[in-house]
Write a structure and sequence with these properties.
Rossmann fold; globular
């Protein structure tokens, strides 16, 4: 059962939704997600910041909190759980201005990026696609009713440069590459439908670069041109989300703001 918990003492949930400005971070206990959460908490333009995470105890450890109500919803990311999360978010219907979906996996204790065809397994591919493609899409499926309204809403999802067909020169990493490419297509298709049904929404696919997080740790080497700080990446993404125009075009950009070839 998912829980809605007030993690700050600055305020309680307000029944009157007038003048609310709400930001939502999905996958808020990860390296980038937690950095985004910290930035949002210190931004006094938000009345409520909502952290969606598998581990709400990790979310609650962040000491840097401003004046916003910081709420945490626990989820195990099953389809039923995703629907329950969005049902709770409906409390803020029409007042959500930012949604950042940070879910994703490159490796874990049992899965490693494939270097050779022989390393591909069906079970590992299903796990990677579930985390990187299916789960974000389940959120987009249910979020449309919560974000639809008069307020401009920008939804950003973490993609990767390695998902680019044109940029694939090294090969390998079959499941991760393909799952992020699938995410790009799913979000592109969703953005077309959102434009018809919730035209106040703008989508961004964001490549954060090689960030100093647990996801990239095994791959941080001298070959990495620039290892980025999570707080810097979070600040750049939030700034870009605030600057984009409300149009029907899906943006696929990197941490420097440059467009990435599909």
């Amino acid at each position: 059962m998912e829980k809605l918990i007030v993690l700050t003492l600055q305020g309680m949930l307000v029944k009157d939704k007038a003048d609310k400005n709400v930001a939502v971070v999905i996958g808020a206990s990860g390296g980038i997600g937690s950095a985004i959460l910290r930035k949002l908490c210190l931004d006094n333009t938000y009345t409520d910041v909502i952290a969606v995470s598998r581990n709400i105890s990790d979310v609650g450890k962040h000491p840097t909190v401003g004046d916003a109500n910081v709420l945490s919803i626990e989820t195990d990311y099953t389809p039923e759980s995703v629907e329950s999360v969005v049902e709770q978010l409906s409390l803020f219907r029409g007042n959500i201005s930012k949604v950042i979906i940070c879910n994703g996996v490159l490796h874990d204790q049992d899965i490693w990026p494939e270097k050779r065809l022989e390393e591909i397994t069906a079970d590992n591919m299903v796990s990677i696609f579930t985390a990187n493609s299916i789960t974000p899409m389940l959120f987009l499926k249910s979020l449309i009713s919560a974000v639809k309204g008069q307020k401009k809403c920008v939804i950003a999802l973490l993609s990767a440069r390695v998902s680019s067909l044109q940029d694939n020169r090294l090969g390998g990493w079959y499941s991760y590459r393909a799952s992020k490419t699938a995410l790009n297509m799913l979000v592109k298709t969703a953005s077309i439908e959102y434009a018809r049904r919730a035209n106040n929404v703008k989508f961004i696919l964001y490549h954060p670069g090689t960030v100093d997080t647990n996801l990239s740790k095994p791959f941080q080497s001298k070959r990495v041109k620039k290892l980025l700080d999570p707080d810097d990446v979070a600040a750049r993404l939030l700034q870009k989300m605030s600057q984009v125009n409300l149009d029907d075009d899906l943006a696929f950009i990197d941490w420097e703001g440059y467009e990435i070839n599909w």
